[in-house]
Design goal:
Elements: H1 3-17, H2 22-33, E1 38-41, H3 48-59, E2 63-67, H4 74-78, E3 79-84, E4 89-94, E5 101-105, H5 112-124, E6 126-129, E7 132-135, E8 141-146, H6 159-162, E9 167-169, H7 176-184, H8 188-194, H9 201-212, H10 218-232, H11 243-259, H12 267-278, H13 292-302
Parallel strand pairs: 1-8, 1-9, 2-5, 5-8
Antiparallel strand pairs: 3-4, 6-7
Helix pairs in contact: 1-3, 2-11, 9-11, 11-12, 12-13
Length: about 300
């Protein structure tokens, strides 16, 4: 398999549907190759659901969408056992969490109890239903969307839930030229229906294995440790990155390097994905008017390159 050609074909197909958002599309593919889960935070109607559907179809994976609401129960995700009279026994009916790509739409509109139901699935790739542990299919990729916290009917995601997402991105409104293409072109649903699968599950597994083989030099590791240490020194954030977050950051950096056609990680790879990987895990210090993403970028500028 030609890794560069395969990844370019995947990105090109995604960009035909998600117009004018090539950086966000690249981040989504990076997250998938790194074996993580993706959180998209933005206002309704900017293409969050379309991105998830396009990715699933392009990979030929089983897709399920769950609309999170205040009355959604954990069993609505995992499934239930129903007594079948013909078989004279209880039969388990799997819920949408048994898809390969799960879109948890507007996750912060559900209660904290239902939000936490995803924790075991995202971390352990299994769910416990009625005392029995059931493995989830491979691959298992969660794309969760959430509305800004100032919108009505939303709940803050707990830190433990946020930490399960490898990356958080925002699509934002399209630029004028991209929006013109959306206004004058075919609907996104029509394009989705025509998309072929660019990759198979086996090829995706090969790409994820290739990510693990991407080389990381000692000076690059020193640079990453300097960045992690900067998050912990109290100057930029109230609480620094955990070791688990650091490991996730390195997986994402390797995936970024692979997409760029290299078999080694460069400082540019780390800088490109650092805000998306760490900003949602930390609270900025001070009242400088900067959000977490801007604070991460300021920290990057302050930490010397190797």
């Amino acid at each position: 398999m030609d890794v560069t050609r395969t990844l370019n074909a995947l990105l090109d197909q995604l960009n035909t549907v998600i117009v004018g958002k090539s950086a966000q599309v690249r981040d989504a593919v990076t997250c998938l190759l790194a074996g993580g889960h993706l959180l998209i935070e933005d206002v309704p109607g900017v293409g969050k659901t379309t991105l998830a559907q396009t990715l699933a179809r392009s990979l030929g994976l089983r897709f399920a969408r769950v609309q999170f609401t205040a009355d959604l129960m954990p069993s609505d995700l995992s499934g239930v056992s129903v007594y079948e009279r013909g078989q004279e026994r209880f039969v388990f009916h799997p819920g949408p969490v048994f898809a390969q790509v799960l879109l948890a739409d507007e996750i912060n509109r559900a209660s904290p109890k239902t939000q936490s139901a995803l924790l075991e699935a995202m971390e352990e790739k299994q769910v416990s239903v009625e005392g029995e542990t059931r493995p989830l299919p491979w691959p298992f990729f969660v794309i969760a969307t959430q509305n800004p916290h100032d919108q009505l009917g939303t709940y803050l995601l707990p830190e433990s839930q946020l930490d399960r997402f490898l990356m958080r991105i925002s699509l934002g409104y399209p630029e004028r030229a991209a929006e013109r293409a959306l206004l004058t072109g075919n609907g996104r649903r029509e394009l989705l229906a025509q998309l072929p699968a660019v990759l198979s599950a086996a090829e995706l597994a090969g790409l994820q294995q290739a990510v693990e083989r991407v080389h990381v030099a000692e000076p690059l590791l020193d640079y990453v440790q300097d960045l992690i240490a900067a998050t912990r020194d109290g100057r930029w954030f109230l609480q620094g990155l955990s070791p688990r977050a650091g490991i996730a950051l390195m997986r994402a950096a390797r995936a970024q390097a692979l997409i760029s056609g290299r078999d080694y990680v460069a400082p540019d790879d780390v800088q490109a994905i650092l805000p998306q990987c760490v900003a949602h895990r930390m609270i900025p210090v001070g009242n400088a008017g900067r959000g977490a993403v801007e604070q991460v970028r300021a920290m990057i500028d302050d930490v010397p390159l190797p």
